[in-house]
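Standup notes
- DV: blocked on the single-chain target, sequence here:
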Amino acid sequence: MSVVCADSCGWLLDSCSHTDEGLQRCVSDSDGLQKPQYFKCCFKREYFNTLKPHVQIQQNTDISTMNTAKHSNAEQAKIDLQTRKKRKRKQRDLNKGELDAHIYHGKIRSVVLEGSQALLEAGRQCGYLTEALTAPPSQSMPSHECRLAALCDLAKQLPLTDESVEAPVQTLNRDGVDPTLDLFSYITENPSDCAYEVTLMKEKYLLPPRSRFLLSDITRMHPLVNSGDKFDLIVLDPPWENKSVKRSNRYSSLPSSQLKQLPVPALAAPECLVVTWVTNRAKHLRFIREELYPYWAVEVLAEWLWVKVTRAGEFVFPLDSPHKKPYEVLVLGRYRSVRSSEAEELPEQRLLISVPSILHSHKPSLSAVLKPYISPKPKCLELFARSLQCDWTSWGNEVFKFQHSSYFTRQRSEESSETSETPNIQ
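- DV (later): unblocked, structure below
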């Protein structure tokens, strides 16, 4: 399970365990061999090796003692703002976005501080939150160079497939991956009950059991719409525009206005739960609440917070830092919301606490925490995905980026092809 412990304030999550659950039984494509090769995989824990806060807190305090200084909140915030104005703005006042962000932080600060204490203490008591690793960390973790987004750009030069195709879905066959598979125009699925290591575009990737994906950009989503599936849960992690992204050129961003082009209403089942990750810019949060969700006929119901901590249970950034905060926001709503007798009422505020990955935009899975709030056998969809999940459909221009074999450790299984069933791949 990805949930280490839970209480009325939220959950402490283990980001690796959910991924590992689907990889206990893997099989590689044949590569000309007569017998399939079985093994099991684990996501490398070194990618979650955050031992110390990125910025040390000035005072000699930690999460457990910061609550005693709660009465000085207003004074500390005032000092932070004055310092920032002198260093960054000099004589110019803070802009509206900065003022909005400061007001928002003031509203949720106590929620983060007080709500996290019991969960972090429970994580320490059970031995999960500790600096000790089962294996020594590498000096520098290699990072796979992902070229999927560039390939999607090239694929736009190809002619569009016939949008009248009744079944725009292709399945892996048991003998390996057909080199003629069109990954850009069809949904590809692994219908097997075990993970499958396949070679896609000369690279090895692990596809979890019963996972489906479409590799494309926003201009070529019609196979997803034409599949006829209606989803009970849709999670989005948009590539929001910001200055640091533009400067670094690490990945392409998407203007907020273009998000309205996403066919969410066409993909959503009645009462579909829609969840959107958003950066801490007040402009983006306001856009979701006031423009995007109303445009999709989604009623805003809640805002949850992802709180990022070190392996020792400290915030990765000081809570009152005038720059980066140790949390991100999730906005939750329902498509044409109608009260359901099958799903629990959605709480307005919850905390999701976890050690973040050092890999950019590698978010924790929401499957376990959202399960009570959707139908018992849901169809789930992730938009702008960079990894795959069991029993989910995923879409994006880097949709299986973090499924690359280099992100996993593997151990040969004692299971042999002579004593085990062949994976149920059509």
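- Follow-up: The chain has eleven helices and 17 strands.
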